[in-house]
Amino acid sequence: MKKIVAVAVLAAMTMLGAVAAAYADGRHRVDGRQQEEVSSAQYHILLGQCRFGDTAGARAQCRTDVKRNYRIGARNPDLDCRTYSSVSVCGELTLSPREQACVSESVGGGLTFRRAEVECYAFG
Questions:
Q1: SS3 letters for the chain?
Q2: How many domains does the chain fold into?
Q3: Do 23 and 45 belong together in one domain?
Q4: Boundaries of domain holding 24
């Protein structure tokens, strides 16, 4: 009986150690999601695109989200980065209702969605 308890305790300690190690490496957040690894250049684009937020609160939230969701490491080929009109952005853009209307109008006028999204995000 003592051996069974000892094995169970050892197994539990091993599992807790593995979980603690996963969180200690800085790749996991409290909500369990893993930070995406991106290159230094990609990270700086992600942070830089925050300057286009409509309000000070939106800009601050953008920077917080970038720091929480990404970490510098190897280049991430799956991160959607694009440049239009000398404005570089990466990832999914959070558009305000005004920016969404701008995208719809621009696409209706002949711009591609991707270009309209970046230009309306940056220039509104």
A1: CHHHHHHHHHHHHHHHHHHHHHHHCCCECCCCCECEEECHHHHHHHHHHHHHCCCHHHHHHHHHHHHHHEEECCCCCCCCEEEECCEEEECCCCCCHHHHHHHHHHHHCCCCHHHHHHHHHHHC
A2: 2
A3: no
A4: 1-34
